[in-house]
């Protein structure tokens, strides 16, 4: 029996890239799929179109699957509720939510505008909350459900020029953990994937210097479909005991990412003054400081 037989999945941002590959993989695994995509540009600006979503739907149907297209935006509460309603209207239930929709407005921090900040937060973080919250009512009523959220090593580790994106993606990790804690008693699970792939979301990475060009060539080898098997597994009943975790998928590698825990401590029974902190606490803690590195410096080896 297919791993997602009888399930209904919502995949946001499924008109291309990672979202499309996840939608296709879930359909092949037996799920009926709501293909959500507004069909906008990478920045979220300009004209919208149903064409990307319709293309994904057509591929699913050509392979014998079932899908409907939804073009509502995740970044609005009422619109997000319509996304979930489209699953109920078309297929009678919802079992899986994949929060994948995203935009980029990269800008160095001291030049980032409030509009650039809000636009990215609205789609990634607020959108993940809105769609998840709308589905939660159904998950609770049926005592089952699975969330798969797309985070990023830009948030987990760091990157240049992405304060808005990084903050949103790390916020999604906290959102996922909170969902996992709050909805565990209803049989609902919530996990994150930090995907590695060359797609529209990464095509804006600079490739001007030889080092940058080499990095881009490495990324191009990591195609979007490499992330889909992990998403299918986490959405399936075979992952029924996995919740609140953060994974990364990098070509043929799967990583379990650490989450924040105390690394070192310093204690003084009489308490601390600023001077004593400088003299004793910081020297004791310094060896545990995290470096100011970026995702590419932590994942420095070639993908296998």
From TrEMBL:
User: What residue ranges carry the coiled-coil annotation?
Assistant: none
Taxonomically, the superkingdom here is Bacteria
Q: Which InterPro entries match?
A: KR_dom, NAD(P)-bd_dom_sf, Peroxisomal_Beta-Oxidation, Sc_DH/Rdtase_CS, SDR_fam
Ketoreductase domain residues are 7-204
**What family is this?**
Belongs to the short-chain dehydrogenases/reductases (SDR) family.
Protein's recorded name: SDR family oxidoreductase
State the organism's lineage. Bacteria, Pseudomonadati, Pseudomonadota, Alphaproteobacteria, Acetobacterales
